[in-house]
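The freezer alarm interrupted the setup, so I double-checked each line after restarting. Inputs confirmed:
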Amino acid sequence: MSLDFNATLSARNFDVSLHLDPGETLAVLGPNGAGKSTLLSVIAGLQRPDSGTATVGGHTLFDLSTRASHWSAPHTRGTVLLAQEPLLFPHLSALDNVAFGPRSAGESKSAARAKALQWLAATETGTLASRKPGQLSGGQAQRVAVARALAAEPELLLLDEPMAALDIHAAPLMRRLLKRVLAGRNAIIITHDVLDVLTLADQVMVLEDGHVSESGPAREVLSRPRSTFAAGLAGLNLVSGTVAGDGITSTYGHVAGMLDAGTAQGQVATAVFPPSAVSVFPDEPHGSPRNTYAVTITDLEPHGDRIRVRAGNLCADITPAASADLALEPGSRVYFLVKATTVSIYPT
Amino acid sequence: MTRRRQGPYSGIPAWVYLIAAAGALFVLLPLVAIIAKVNWPQFLPLITSESSVTALGLSLRTSAASTALCIILGVPLALVLARGSFPGQRLLRALVLLPLVLPPVVGGIALLYTFGRQGLLGSTLDVLGIRIAFSTTAVILAQTFVALPFLVVSLEGALRTAGYKYEAVAATLGARPTTVLRRVTLPLVLPGLASGAVLSFARSLGEFGATLTFAGSLEGVTRTLPLEIYLQRESDADAAVALSLVLVAVAAAVVGLAYGTSRPPRMPRAAQDEPERIPA
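Predicted 3D structure, all chains:
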């Protein structure tokens, strides 16, 4: 089943198109309010765009491009939504929650329950079948919700931050479960977590302000991000500019680095480098080495066993001892020095 | 029946408690006065006299019928008001709630000029051989007219509180709108529906003005308990007091029931984060 989708919704400044090959999982990233949930609502049929078309595996979800517009009701679409909260029906047992989809599809009560038991077993929640949602922990409830979504046999599974409301113990289990059940299945998952992208997604799409700012295979987007958002997620510094000499000319000045083969002078390009490759100096280093930038510290925060020093969009990771020696605090004027060999530059 | 909670700081000044106590007394004292006035040795014979039993039976039957009618008409109204969006929605809500503030006598007159022989639909109904005014049907219509808003208000509130997230999920799981209504929406708001129905029943039971105007006071046909009490008050005050106490008791039971059901069952979230294991 493949997905083709494009839609605009002017009230939300939303204009997105995407394509998903059979069996692929797409991770949608982006800041809050970027239109990620709108995307899922439109696909699920809960929100109507101004224009656009969408097809899943040859059957049309909506087609508002022609005058005789077609809009199918949510229950006919085969696009099941799994939200941040499990939203299990509180008056039904776990078993009947999972049997809800098959029942709605017209199966008999016993057949639906048999199917539900299979899915509960597949999500390791078989022992919870008779429990009411109020008697389940957050992680258990979300796993039952996964079982319920899958039991409805969706052509496309829509996951809206399914792990955001789980505590740190339940999230890894959920991630493993999703990795298992999403294999070979068409799914779109909204997430803020780079781990989800790495473990679950084939494709990545970054949404910013209702528009696609970047998309591509997950590994490529994370290793060579082209948007500030994706770079932040991958934990990389990102500077854009135009290629000049052995680097790019950017708002920070000249950034020297390792140019991709075939990068032409004057081309728009992106330079990325890890925060660990940035050194911090209180005074301008002697001899003015290349890639030295005078910056004002905006934030200091713990980052693993390091201190992350933020200065606007750039950041550096240094040891706590170094931070103490330099007496860093927000507002300090310092110099960031970046080794050119750690900077990769590629066309945008 | 409020349990005093060892709760957090409430910030209520002491004098507010004083006025609240006065308010509670204002409601309680008349009830005490009725109980004090009851002729206890004659109590049973008074409330089991033939006319009393007839009136009570009629009251219970008509109130049950009007409650059923309130549910049939009120559930769709509440759904449309809480979930729908259409022009004139606010106006419709205002109109549905109008009987809450309308004097019942006015309601009775309005019904009379709708369903009465001279009324808007009267001649049509007459042709069909249906006469509503001054019949038991009229009693039921009068009661439904005044009791409907109680059900609508209570259910609309429950629907708004429940939100539409569950319905959206149910729809994406493949449930058609009627299935969503039957299997998700109504079960979720059942407590609100129950308390609304109980309140409607209580309001129907106490209906007086609209019934008298629209249905009259025919023993066994339209003379419900409140009408009987009003009538007895002139001839036999003891009987009126005894029957009043019966209505107080029924009303108290109904209110108790409504509060019992409107409180959502609190299920402690089993946050027993037991180690969960799934094989990778």
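Quick read of the result. Chain A is about 25% helix and 35% strand.
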